[in-house]
Design goal:
It comes from Sulfitobacter undariae. The protein is 0% helix and 61% strand. It is an all-beta fold and 195 residues long.
Amino acid sequence: MQILKHNDLIEVPWKNGGGTTRNIARGLRVGQVAWTISRADVRQDGPFSDFHGMTRILTVVSGGEMTLQAPTGSLAANMWEPVCFDGALKIQSRLKGAELTDLNLMFDPQYCRGDVTVHQTPQKRQISLPSSGLLAFHVLAGSPVLDSVSLTTGDTAFFKQAGPDLELKPDDAILEIRLTLLDQSEAIKLRIADR
């Protein structure tokens, strides 16, 4: 298990001044990005960047909620409800009240498949690792326990060798990010917080 503490994340301001991003991790395939995980603080309405060729799963993790307006219709980005869409869609975000923080998983569907699941009911069980790939867990609330290690809100834990034992108490919530590699001919290297 590798752990990235929330306090170790570095803020990068958006060019349009509408928010900040904190890079959590990325997967590199021959120097190209195959997937990324990041947190974004959204302070105002505005356009999303174009991530052509990537699939995007956005989950509001704290604060308010927002509507994602696309040419094909609108998507509701509600608290702790993952929303999946094409990264090339021309999205205009509209906040519904308060500023918010969201977590983004973006992946190239040629090389991997991504799934995001919220766990928020008391439980104690083992989570299986994908046959080829990795698991990441991002803490939403409380102090969930992974392999006997207690984490706090905003922390992220990574697993590549074996799936962890997960323990949630009544006030705990955690986001499971499952990345399954589709092409083993070129290894995808994990880089945590660009360090």
